[in-house]
Design brief:
about 290 residues; TIM Barrel; eight-stranded parallel beta barrel; 8 strands; about 45% helix; about 15% strand
Amino acid sequence: MFAGAHTALVTPFLPQGMIDTEAFRKIIDEQFASGITGVVPVGTTGESATLSTEEHRRVIEIAVKQTAKRGLVIAGTGSNSTREAVDLTQAAELAGADAALLVTPYYNKPSQEGLFQHYRAVAESTDLPLMLYSIPGRCHIHIEVETVARLAKSCSNIRAIKEAGGVTERVRQLKAGLPDDFEILCGDDALTLDFMKAGAVGVVSVASNLIPGPIAKLAAAMLSGEQGEAEAIHEKYSGLFADFLKLDTNPVPIKAAMGLAGKCLPKLRLPMVEMPDEKVAELKATLSSLGLI
């Protein structure tokens, strides 16, 4: 279901801080015109942590309407509160989303049994296909392979995991411990090639906000066995992936890049702030070398 390239959408803001719905719609249109498989509104890249509940739901509604069945809408509905995750997931289902992405609960650091009960409660509350999201760099805990396997066995609508732990060996471990039809998605553009070589079926990409066509082609090439083409794309854009990782915390660099490319303002919500001028200059040089600005 989830094979391909999905874009973890930025949430554009106007100078006054309100959501720039016009820019958001244009970004979505460009994604599908460029061959992207699906979009992921209000994930980490979409600054879900600083959106109000009303804004969160509104962004999903806009994404569903603008996508107009051209691809998947995988709504970010995770929370460190199970009750809130259930409410957001049910709202996304009512809005017409195709699936939901559920980040590991953060700050409260539940046990593996707590994670199992959390995800099972969400799964039982909805008919949507669900994608787990393991990102220990932000949440400080993994969803262990055994826990993912328990969830896959217990909850038929838990279909996939976005793996953002930065370790290719995790893909091999997940492949070995899960049913063949359980899908693994890469959560880091710099590792898409390695993850797909190890058995992942695609990527939830940050870079595809800016370069949807190349990211879509990279994933498609790997899925069709054209590894050489995928490697060439990866090599061309590896400097950009590195910039996104080293210059600042996501989504600061991608917002800066989108601003330089004229796709939306680089504005963020506190406590996130824009990159300093010297880092913007470094990113600008990379974008210029790739012909993106």
